[in-house]
Each structure stands twice: as structure tokens, then as C-alpha cells.
Amino acid sequence: MFYKAPDMSLNRRIFVKSLALTAGSGMLDFNNIGQMTPSAWPISCNQYSWITFFAREGRNWNTDPDISLGEFASAGLTAYEPAFNNAEEVGKILPYLKKYNLSMPSVYVNSSLHQKEEATRSIRSLLAIADALKPANTKIIVTNPNPLKWGSDKIKSDEELAVQAQSLDQLGAELKKRGMKLAYHTHDVELKAAAREFHHMLLATDPKNVSLCLDVHWVYRGSGNSQIALFDIVKLYGKRIVELHIRQSKDGIWQETFGDGDIDYPRLVSALSALHVKPHLVLEQCLEKTSPKTMNGVEAHKADLAMAHKVFAKWLS
């Protein structure tokens, strides 16, 4: 399967480039998050799922962060994983996190790491974002290195993969100095050609520098809707998983809410527990064109949160 963005909504990379929150800067104290392990952090939710719900209603998540994060908080969520393009955007969102009592244990930042000069610029920008995140005590930065072209079936050369792995390791080492973890994230494009990009990013980097954000459904979808492939990856790299992006489908179609479906999440909990791994949990139950349409974003995320507390109860107690 070649990479294809959901028809219904913006592709994550496109939406990240469009982010432009318009609030004043502010300072927060999130020391409690800094003193906790990922398994003790509250269940978080990524920005992207809300973007898809807003888009379905003809609204733009980024138009008014006060309204957007107000709805986010009204769903009972207490932790937020936004995406940032640059350091300036960090200060703009902090006052709203304070207003709605939201923590920010992790954030999502795109990077371009397969060409040396571009990688240098990308690392510099990402480290500036990391420094700007200090007041929020963010501990995980999730990055998905850009492909050659979003929506294209063209894959990187061995030389480009080598440069990307070196850059990823360098970035992770720098974040480690700042008390942060770098979590490598993928979609389905990285699973092409025997998953050589996915595997090389983990085999050619130091586990001390590069962890894994397992986007459960993208790995499932990218491997041809295969739970065998998903759980093989857990066997191979489970101890490097520090964060899960959580989504469910039925018959391959993303559902409005997290629950029973194609992926056996209780089995995933058991598999990671056997490895003594308790990752940070991030809801990302996004919509696509064929998703059911029975509820709004607040209703759906309330249901997601309630189900997540049941499925992951072993880790949350």
C-alpha cells in the first residue's frame, strides 16, 4: 500500500505546516510531570484527531485556540500533544494550557533528516523548540522524518537512509542532554520495501538516544493490515517504546471512537507488560472519509477516554 492521506482531512504534514496559533507568550510550571514516569502521566490526546473532527464540521482547529482547547478540556482530557513548526509557536500556546489546566508531556515535531544540509537546519530548529518547551517540562519529542515527497511512492536511497539515521541519533543525543527523549514515529510509507527505512532507523541508532513512538494503526495499515507484523515489531523493538499513538479501525476503516476492532489492544498491553514497558498513552482516533458520523468531537473523545481507561487500566493503576 502506498502512502495516501485520508480523503476527509488534512495530512498530518500539511496540517503541521499550517499551524499558526495566535496567542501571547506565557510561562507555565509543569514540575509534577517532570517528576513522573511516562506510565504515571495522564492519558494524552494528539491535536490531529481534533483537526479531523473540526474539519468534518467545516471548522478550523487553528482559528481560535481558546475555543479549540476549551472543547478539548471539556471532553475530560488533561494532557495535550500539539505539533510545532518552530519555537515561536510554543510560547503562543502556553497561556491556553494554563487556562484549561492542561499538561504537555509530549509534542510532535516534523523533521527533514535525509540530506545533510537540510538535516543540520532541521536539528537546529527542533532543538530551539526543545529549549522553548522548558517551562512546560515536556519530556518526549516525537518526530517523523519527512519522506522524499508526501503522497509519492518514491523511497529513499541507502545513502539517504544512512544520513537520516546519523541525524536522528545526533538529534536524540542533544535532546538527552536537555533531559528529553526523542521518539521516532512512522506512518505507512516507512514500511515499504521490506520496511527498510523503519528497521534502519532503529538498528542504526543508539537506544539511549532514539526511542520509539509506536503509532499502532499506521504500522498495522502500512504492513497490509497485519497484526502479525505489528506484534513482530513489538517483539523486536518493544523495549524502546516510550509512547503509543492509539487508534482503532473496523474492516480497515478508522472509527469515530476507540474500542474493539481490527487491532487487539489488550494483547498489546500484555505484550508490552511482559517486557516491563509502560509507555505514555496518546489518543489519536482520527477520521477519514469513510468513518462513521454519529457524534461530535467532544462526545467522541469522552468515549475514547473512558474506553482507554478500561483497556489500559493495568498501566494506570
Automatic annotation (TrEMBL):
One function term, GO molecular function aspect: myo-inosose-2 dehydratase activity
Keywords: Lyase
Enzyme Commission number, as recorded: 4.2.1.44
Pfam families: AP_endonuc_2
Coiled-coil residue windows: none
Domain Xylose isomerase-like TIM barrel: 73-289
Keyword Lyase attached: yes
Keyword Phosphoprotein among record annotations: no
Database matches in PANTHER family: HYDROXYPYRUVATE ISOMERASE (PTHR12110), INOSOSE DEHYDRATASE (PTHR12110:SF41)
Protein name listed in UniProt: Inosose dehydratase
Source species of the chain: Dyadobacter helix
Lineage: Bacteria, Pseudomonadati, Bacteroidota, Cytophagia, Cytophagales
